[in-house]
Amino acid sequence: MMMYPAPLGRLIQELSKLPGIGEKSAARLAFHMLKGKKDDVFRLSECIGRLRQEIGLCQRCFGFSEMKAQDEDGALCDMIAVEKSQEFRGLYHVLHGTISPLDGIGPDALRIKELLERLRDSTIKEVIVATNPTMDGEATALYLSKVIKPLGVSVTRIARGLPMGGDLEYTDVATLGKALEGRREI
Question: pLDDT tens digits, residue range 38-49?
Fold first, then answer.
């Protein structure tokens, strides 16, 4: 690492630990903070400092939630990607990862046991699996289907395929194949 004054060097080192942030990006962010308004930097610092104090896991769905909202009966945690769609009206359950045998992550490392307990104690009729369309996401979806269906609960998977505004000409063959596989009548 280039020689910086100690406080700046420590900030760059810490920022470069963030995903997708290398030393150059970390330095650019640090210099931006040095050049910016002092109040903005202090507000950012306060937000970062309070993050782990004010956000925790909901004991019901295991989504990130404000600590004060965790014990409220019926409180739902925002699952950011799904919530942005404004299409889903239901309950959530966050597994916090996917089954990944190559990384040594099995079903016991996820919140699957809690999901099954939750399903046994409820009237939920369908579980919509919304994992990424990767090998690990597919393995997780198949495992969930295998352990949930015996409970009499329907297991469905979110559709995969072309994004709105996408162009067929530039679509990869795997995505196009999944779009054809998941087609429906109009």
Answer: 999 999 999 999
